[in-house]
Design goal:
Layout lengths: L11 E8 L3 E8 L2 E3 L9 E4 L4 E4 L1 E6 L12 H10 L2 E6 L10 H14 L3 E4 L15 H6 L6 E2 L9 H12 L4 E4 L13 E2 L2 H6 L3 E2 L2 H17 L2 E4 L5 H12 L4 E5 L1 H5 L21 H13 L4 E2 L8 H4 L16 H10 L6 H16 L16 E4 L4 E3 L18 E3 L2 E6 L2 E5 L4
Parallel strand pairs: 1-4, 1-5, 6-7, 7-8, 9-10, 10-13, 11-12, 13-14, 14-15
Antiparallel strand pairs: 1-2, 2-3, 5-16, 16-19, 17-18, 19-20
Helix pairs in contact: 4-6, 6-7
């Protein structure tokens, strides 16, 4: 994928797309930006987009690319190709790599690998604490001032439980408009082995339970700390109705707190766990129907601002164990838009403008990405996904661009929406090839 960011001089013309809110029209891209379609020459490459919806390229706030350290599960090249197939033009690469992204040098290394190998923009997420140990702040300022320009910091997978350390981190990132993204899990309420929503089912299956309060109490504490410091905090992978209530309370107070929800928490429930299939082990766990309903409502009304995939690829030898021993996580970049269409668009909870808001504009705003989540207008960066609203297909895990096969949607029929993805004016994915 070397040179993916370089746009062809002749340009690329999308003809007859549904431009959300502006009717049918054309989009011409040259040198990575949108230009006047009337300037298209005879040698321009054309895409017939009749019947397709044009949206700004999607942005994922929460991707695990595993490189460096676990290239057997995923690499930047394979993970970003999966992203492009899913309509993404930017992904934020979480810090729990090996070594941890807790220094400017580590952040710049991932950023450089993304520029070399990526089929989408790779934006490093910096660790909050050194080694994700929760005891000493990582190089927040140096990462922010590095070539990688880190603005999002997270110990994702490990909650920053020390309130004093969390306060210091919030105070530190305020100076450069950064944000602390929290994996909300109180380890005293939901221990490291917790893997099932606490309730009748966890007792019946004999699986360690995770009560909703383990999430919502951390979110409430962090909201108070954000108010105290005048800084920004973000909640990773919200999974409970209780957390939705806390977010609404915080928003009424004007606190700068945002949140994301994963596609799997919007669609899958605890009913999947009855067969002990480790593919459905995630962190936080799947929840009962009433929580899923609350998450959908919160995403629709903007209480939850964004969709974040928590794309978590694992090698087979890490996932194929007894449920309690298996690594938690699912892959999701290629199917995120499909699940959102199934759960939110088809039932009328979101229109296409709402999809653009939750999957492009808001994630880019939260991460402070200047070249993503921009309107499809002249002079703006040419990042586009062309969506086929009618296409459907049966998901086949074996055909994924990701190296991993821990795909919870295997054999399910879902929308197959992405006809093409264009990043910086060049096709990064096109259904059926070039």
């Amino acid at each position: 994928m070397s040179g993916m960011g370089e746009a062809p001089n002749a340009g690329l013309l999308i003809v007859g797309a549904d431009l959300v809110g502006a009717g049918q029209g054309d989009l011409l891209m040259r040198d990575g930006v949108f230009v006047d379609p009337s300037e298209a020459g005879a040698d321009v490459e054309r895409i017939d987009a009749d019947g397709l919806v044009a949206l700004p390229g999607l942005v994922d706030l929460h991707t695990h690319l595993r490189e460096p350290g676990r290239e057997d599960a995923e690499t930047i090249a394979t993970g970003t190709l999966a992203a492009a197939r899913g309509g993404y033009t930017a992904v934020l690469a979480m810090a729990n790599t090996d070594p941890v992204t807790d220094t400017a040098e580590a952040a710049e290394h991932i950023w450089a690998l993304g520029r070399r190998d990526g089929a989408a923009e790779v934006v490093p997420v910096g660790a909050v604490s050194k080694g994700l140990q929760g005891s000493e702040l990582a190089e927040l300022g140096l990462m922010a001032r590095s070539a990688a320009t880190v603005r999002v910091f997270s110990d994702d997978g490990v909650c920053v439980t020390d309130a004093r350390l969390m306060r210091r981190a919030l105070e530190y990132v305020r100076a450069f408009d950064g944000v602390i993204a929290q994996h909300a899990q109180d380890p005293r309420l939901a221990g490291a082995d917790a893997c099932c929503h606490e309730g009748e089912l966890s007792g019946r299956l004999g699986l360690p339970g995770w009560p909703p309060a383990a999430e919502s109490t951390i979110v409430a504490r962090d909201a108070e700390l954000a108010a105290l410091t005048g800084s920004r905090t973000h909640v990773c992978h919200v999974s409970t109705a209780d957390t939705v209530d806390v977010l609404r309370w915080a928003h009424r107070r004007g606190i700068a707190i945002t949140a994301e929800v994963t596609p799997h928490h919007l669609m899958l429930t605890t009913s999947e766990l009855t067969g002990y299939d480790p593919i459905y082990k995630v962190n936080p766990p799947l929840r009962p129907d009433e929580h899923v309903a609350a998450l959908r409502e919160a995403l629709a009304d903007g209480t939850i601002a964004a969709v974040g995939t928590d794309h978590a690829p694992h090698a087979r030898h890490d996932k194929q164990h007894a449920f309690i021993d298996a690594a938690p996580g699912m892959i999701g970049l290629e199917t995120a838009l499909a699940v959102l269409i199934e759960t939110m668009v088809k039932p009328g909870r979101l229109d296409w403008a709402g999809v653009a808001e939750r999957m492009s504009y808001e994630p880019a705003r939260i991460a402070r990405l200047p070249h993503q989540g921009r309107p499809l207008t002249i002079g703006e960066p040419a990042n586009v996904v062309l969506v086929d609203p009618q296409a459907r297909a049966t998901v086949d895990a074996a055909t994924s661009a990701s190296l991993a096969r821990n795909n919870p949607w295997h054999s399910r029929e879902l929308p197959d929406p992405v006809a093409a993805t264009i990043w910086r004016g060049r096709i990064s994915y096109r259904r059926g090839g070039s």
